[in-house]
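quick one, 246 residues, struct below
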Amino acid sequence: MECSIIHVNTFLFTCPCRLFMMLGMQLEKTKTAKAIDLTPLASKTNYVVNSATTQGNSYQFNLCAAMHNAAAPCTSSSMVCEYTNSQATANYGAIDNIQVSRGSGNIAAILVSKGDACPTLLGAKSTATFNFVCDSSVKTPTFKLLEDLPNQCKVTIQVTSKYACPGSGGGSIGTVLVAVFIGVLALYFIAGAGLMYRQGHGGSELIVHKTFWCGLPGLIGDGFGCCFNTIRGKPMGAGSEYSSLK
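---
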């Protein structure tokens, strides 16, 4: 379900449905970052775009979230599903198999969703591509079918929205980094507790590296004390009596 890219010059870093761009030529010349945050486009109901080539065909989908009330062959994790005469016929991608990249020209971002194997094209997968176009005046997203190739299991849809504009989502690199740190820390403790449990431990002993974490507040206090004494020009241990070495 990770579906976006932070773009800082040539540095890429995955994060949920947000695309970050440092403004300016070099990172050290600016501290301003603006994000294309597509997550507000997740809807409580499915979006629908009718096929331009096959009568009765349509594509139901959500953006940056699983679609609602998906029917087989689509699943509860599907983001895009093809329908023929109101019957689900093909899974065009799950929320955990999508990629978001920076676009060019008037296309701010591109989201690609890959689903089940294409029955008419050996070795290919059903693929839905969404081209996001920035328009700050468009509060409710509008859709335009750009490509509809059922025989090749491909569909391309243009999405015009204010959320395709940098800064519209109000996200920041700091916010995402904090979220990533918390997620990694939670995974560390959960996985560690599972490992300790399998080794027969229980209670507080489930905390992996317990001695370190219990001593961490004291280490932090010592660090602040060192900094405070350095600012005051007082070396660590000043005021204490030590025996001279002979």
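The radius of gyration is 26 Å.
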